[in-house]
Amino acid sequence: MPKTREEKQKIVENLKENIQKGKAIFFVGIKGLKAKEIFNLRENLKKEGAFLYVVKKTLLDIAFKENNINFPKDEFKEDVAVIFSLKDEISPLKVAYQFAKTNENLKILGGFFEKEFVGKDEVISLSMISSKEDLISRLVWTINAPISNFVNVLEANIKGLLNVLAKAKA
After folding, report:
1. pLDDT score of 1
2. Contact yes or no for 88/49 (Cβ under 8 A)
């Protein structure tokens, strides 16, 4: 059953609000996905503070234009779903990428970072970046490494002295 004009206006208003609140927006092709698969993807995205919204490209185009963002509607030839990331820019993309690996019907098409459109290849490369927590832990480990190595060197001198003293005593 077709949507009424009022329903479409509510959808556009909801999209406009999410475009303004979202830290990042991704587009995925969902042609061939079953309802259960879309439900599973939605559940996984919800855990990461994001949500999937299946909507017509014309309504998306209207919402983006009202936010003064150029939406490349002509680049998408298939059914499109939008992932709005509200907390972290990358983690929902990782979920979608992992889902696309196990299900060939989901295709990552592109996205918006800081109101600039990013193509498919760039979005896929972003999905391969380590998580924020991993990067922070690596940074802390890297900063801590020289200090711990210095402590180990100092311990080695003391242990060597103790070994010499123990052998001299025996």
Report:
1. 60
2. yes
